[in-house]
Design goal:
The protein is an all-alpha fold and 82 residues long. 66% of the residues lie in helices and 0% in strands. It contains four helices and no strands.
Length: 82
């Protein structure tokens, strides 16, 4: 039983190290509406959460700030006649 628990803890630590090595995992978590930053706030230090959120914002600014945003036409509230 102890060997199984040790193996499980080792696997969890492996996944946590992956989170720290690649921001893609954390970005995916933040963008998932069911997670956002809740898991990070429970399991990481506050400066790590702040750093990750800032990195995500910077990534979006770098990738998308040059794009022109077009306005979305408002949806009509009228019921079409057949």
């Amino acid at each position: 039983m102890r060997a199984g628990i040790r193996a499980a803890i080792a696997k969890l630590e492996e996944y946590r190290n992956l989170l720290e090595d690649s921001s893609a995992y954390l970005f995916a978590m933040i963008l998932d509406p069911s997670h956002k930053t809740l898991w990070m706030k429970k399991n990481l230090q506050s400066h790590q959460v702040d750093s990750c959120v800032a990195a995500l914002k910077q990534c979006f600014d770098d990738q998308y700030s040059h794009l022109e945003v077009s306005s979305i036409p408002e949806a009509s509230t009228e019921i079409p006649e057949d």
